[in-house]
Amino acid sequence: MRKPMMFCRRLVLLGCASALAGCVSLGGGEPPSSLLTLTAEASVPPGSAHIGTQADTLAVHVPETSASIDVLRIPVQVDDATIAYVTDAVWVEKPARLFRRVVAETIRAETGQFVIDGDDPSLFADIHLRGTLREFGYDARSSSVVVRFDAIRTGEGGMVETRRFEAVEQGILAQAAPVSSALNRAANDVARQVAAWLSETPDPGP
Fold first, then answer.
1. Residue 171 falls inside a structural domain
2. Which DSSP category does 180 fall into?
3. Whose CA is closest to 192, among 81, 103, 119?
4. Sign of the torsion formed by the C-alpha atoms of 91, 94, 97 and 99
5. Residue 36 domain boundaries
6. pTM for the full model?
7. What is the C-alpha separation between 35 and 171, in angstroms, rounded?
8. Alpha-carbon gap, residue 158 to 72, rounded angstroms
9. What's the pLDDT score for residue 120?
10. Where are the alpha helices (DSSP H) in 63-131?
11. Angle at CA 63, nearest 5°, toward 115 and 168?
12. pLDDT tens by residue, 148-172
């Protein structure tokens, strides 16, 4: 009796895999013909200059990520326990670093603050933006892209502030071009939210 049940389960799994085969993959395949990147929608014009002190300089650090995001692929949440990847969608660099650049450039453009986002920004800044990129991919269950960032701002005197930011775009086809474009828009949306938050006066607490 167990063999027919096992056979039926295999047929169901094969059917699900066939339905997703044209959109997502579990790895392998031919290399893509092009690579994806993120671009800041707000940017500082060429020739702009800023002079500041270490006390008012912001260091933007590469956010932490889970293993599913810390790759050059776009993760697809198929169900609660299964992750695949968008077919033919490959980042030119890991998305956490691309996201850091979008956030840093948006903060420069939106706030005018002196921002450092190099590989070792800690040397020249007293204010730091760190955090965790919780979600940066595609949810097949809702046909949407999700960018979720838990930000941590630290400053002089031991000040620590945290806030969660999120952007969701629904109705996106599970294909490289529409997913990557939607992720770029969502990343910029989150970056603008972060810039607006940093423009607020930090809460000194009780």
1. yes
2. H
3. 103
4. positive
5. 2-199
6. 0.82
7. 23
8. 35
9. 65
10. 95-111
11. 100
12. 999 999 997 889 999 999 999 999 9
Strand partners, 150: 132, 164
What are the beta bridge partners of residue 27? none
Give a yes or no: residue 204 inside a domain.
no
Nearest to 24 by CA among 134, 168, 143: 143
**Residues 116, 60 contacting (CB under 8 angstroms):** yes
pLDDT digits (tens, 9 = 90+) for 70-112: 999 999 999 999 999 999 999 999 999 999 999 999 999 999 8
Provide the CATH number for the domain around residue 9.
3.40.50.10610
- The continuous run of DSSP H or E covering 78 comes out as strand 73-79
Asked whether residue 205 is domain-assigned, the answer is no
Based on the structure, what is the number of domains in the chain?
A: 1
Length of the chain: 206
d(CA 150, CA 166): 9
Buried (b) or exposed (e) across 169-190, using 16+ Cβ within 10 A?
beebebbbebbbebbbbbbbbb
Residue 146 lies in a domain: yes
pLDDT surpassing 60 at residue 15 = no
Question: Does position 146 have pLDDT exceeding 80, yes or no?
Answer: yes
State the first-to-last Cα distance of the chain, in angstroms, to the nearest integer: 67
For residue 182 the two structure tokens come to: 């939607």
